[in-house]
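Lab notebook, bench 4. Still working through the backlog of constructs that have no structural model yet. Next entry is a single chain of 622 residues. Request: give me the structure tokens for it.
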Amino acid sequence: MSLRRLIGFNLLSAVVLGVAGFYAGWWLGHQITGPSIAYFSATNQNDIALFVAYLVGVVGFLVGLGFANYPVQRLLGKPPTLREKEQQGAARYFGLCTDHKVVGIQYLLGIGAFIFIGGLNAMLIRFELMRPTHLVWNGNNYLTLVGVHGTMMMGMMTSGILGPFANYFVPLMIGARRMAFPRIEALTFWLLMAAGTILMTTFAFGGFPTGWTGYAPLNEQANMGMDAYIAFFALVGLSMTLLGLNMLATVITMRAPGMTWGRLPIFVWATVSTSVLMLLAAPVLISALLMLTMDRAAQTSFFNDQAGGSSYLYENLFWFFGHPEVYILALPGMGILLEILPVFSRKPLWGYRLAVTGMLGIGLMSFLVWQHHLFVSGINADVRPFYMLSTEIISLPTGFIFICALGTLWKGRIRATVPMLFSLAWLFNFLIGGLSGVFLSDVPSDVTTHGSFFSMAHFHYTIMGGLLFAFFAGIYYWVPKMTGYNFNERLGKWHFWIMFLAFNSTFGPLLVIGFLGMPRRVVTYAGYLQGANDWVSVSAFVLGASMLIFLANLIWSQVFARVPTGVNPWGSKSIEWQLPSPVPVHNFDRIPTFGSDPYPYGEDAGSMLAQRPVVSPARPTP
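Model written out:
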């Protein structure tokens, strides 16, 4: 590697400038003085210094990657280029690159790394709960583990499917050569990586006791580790907002000729629905965190009850974002499910318009149900019936997705490939999550189950059982197209069956444990529940081991065995599978023209040839 490349704008320079920026910001923050913040010197807790350190560190990190180059060049009168897109080799994955396919792979690897960290925290949590009394972690450390696990998973997986798969495949599916805003696309990824790194620094500042929700008044009383939580979710919210904006702009303005709204692949519709939620919900979270930052660093009182604020206000603002976020996580999984089922049942997607209606309906209703999270938090009893009803009604558009999935499977020629197995598991897990959610949507039963492990198990069935299984379905289905090499089918099936059985063996019993009265986020519990908790912990360890099987499969198939994928091993009709594997830099030599519905399975050869999109061979990679 040349010296010029080593000291240029890349991940190494970004880390150096990021660390230097953090310490420069830490010093600068300590220079800020005044009567209103004199208490910092007495408590040895300078939140201002830490917030400034995070801000300057992130700016330095982005400058080191090269994000300042373009505006500086434009200010100097140089013409705009997308020179970053033309990079070749492995180095392009470790810096600023505007090729949407590179960004998709960056998301896949980056988010995967942080999921591994979040999963490791889960293993530590379950190890602690193998005894009803203190085992390894004290109460504060245990709460920090719980908080980092939940915050990491929820924050990173907001882009867990849109980041890798929508960035890579949506431009291909609509016949475009790039995203609408390539540099913003790259920025969303690196903001997310900076956020994950910041969250891990919470351990150096004492952690935080609030769980992933960050509730007041604990968020104002917590030590400096809470500042890492605030900075993490603020950066995640900014990344989500920009990602949603970019996706919408791309789908609205860059569709190829003939790609009408009625011909969009269902995964693109899922991306559109999710992007709308990102664009509307994430700014509310950023606003709430900005107010919390002012409370902690400048002695305002937005959420301080004793000074005229309202801790209840924080709960409403958080869940006005938080419940749409649940569907930001779920909708892309539904899109992957309905994208894969037609391929491996060899049938058109049943009820295409009904599925689109369901996705849009879920997006609309998700903004009308947030206060069911507050049934036991002092909500006015007069509004409980409305939110109970709206929560039940959102089951209807969700049911549309299930009907379309079952209709597609009905009398299909089903192939039990690994992507298909994960898709079928999604149906089972999400169904359990939906049925258990009925108990939490009704006020009388929610009063009993809300703060228990029942609520946590329901959440994991809905999110992990839905999103994570869809995530792996997408990996086994699309990564061969992204890399050009197949996974090992036998290892993939071992991964699936162990993961599926261990997942249900972990969270199924937790539904029962919750009904038996075990509260969540508590390090000690009644002795009679130890046997059930031991079962859950062992099952969780097996679940974690299944991820190691996947990791072994990934390394073996993509690094050592490297069996070529070919153009279209699944026999899919989607346009991305008509291109070489992996897809070359410029996607298409000329923009394709679409003339048929997106799922023409079962049509005769003559009709299919007459209607299939015109796709020219992609320009070969240099």
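Notes after review: The chain has 23 helices and no strands. Residues 35-42, 605-612, 616-622 have pLDDT under 50 and may be disordered. Flag for follow-up if needed.
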